[in-house]
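Each field is set out underneath.
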Amino acid sequence: MKDIKKRIAFNKFKDYSFRVLGLLSTFVGLALLFALIADLFMEGAPRISYKFFASFPSRFPEEAGILSAWVGTLLIMLVTAFAAIPLGVAAGIYLEEYAKKNWLTDIIEINIANLAGVPSIIYGLLALGMFVYFFKFGESVLTGGLALALLILPMVIMATREAIRAIPNSIREASYALGATKWQTVWWHIIPYSTGGILTGIIIGLSRAIGETAPIITVGALTFIAFLPTPPVSSDFPFISFKWLFDPFTVMPIQIFNWVSRPQQEFHVNAAAAGIVLLCMTLLMNAAAIYIRYRFRKKIKW
């Protein structure tokens, strides 16, 4: 009896010690993150202004801005979203609802999981060989967007599959019992119920892509650019232009890298300000993911 009490007391001590250690580790991580963000804001916040957003990069730090960088980032993310989302969601739906469970699908699933952990520079090299040299897209917005689409495609596929797996089989069975076809069941029941999880995975993937540098540098993004891509709206019929897809570009991470690599302290302040903007863009995307998930979960009644 005495040994049992000692064993129980020792197990409680281990449990308490693990909790304290986990709490301390969490606080250390949060404290370091808060210190880094606070230092970033204290250094870069005074530089943020309308002129900073509306000016091109310059060799004079007080006149330099991020106009070409944030416009290029938005265009790259637009191409990434249009390329990765339909393909990734369709692939996830097919693998989860239509594909037969055999050795071939097992190999595909293993490869998708492995691709999600491949270093981003590998996707840059793949895009360089495929889109720049083979398809002759050049060092353009289209190439950069497709490179990032390859990067987040496995994440979108996995998020789609996990969201679909969370749907109870009873919903499928009820749909089939009422005479619905496979496609009607997927379109009217599976996709609506899993939309929250799918959108969350998509936005998290895009928030990762927005901060990537290695694939973009590999496919030829410029470190200094003082002009904007061709406007997507034209004065001639059909009033929509796609020339911007083949224009050169830069993005926020590359602009930050360019300023940090310079010796002048004023450029470092500009880099901190651009880092704040990039951080806010990422946080807004993640906040949108949380809000979308909340709204869809609130609407759906099981």
Q: What stands out?
A: The mean pLDDT is 86. The chain has eleven helices and no strands. The CA atoms of residues 43 and 269 lie 6 Å apart.
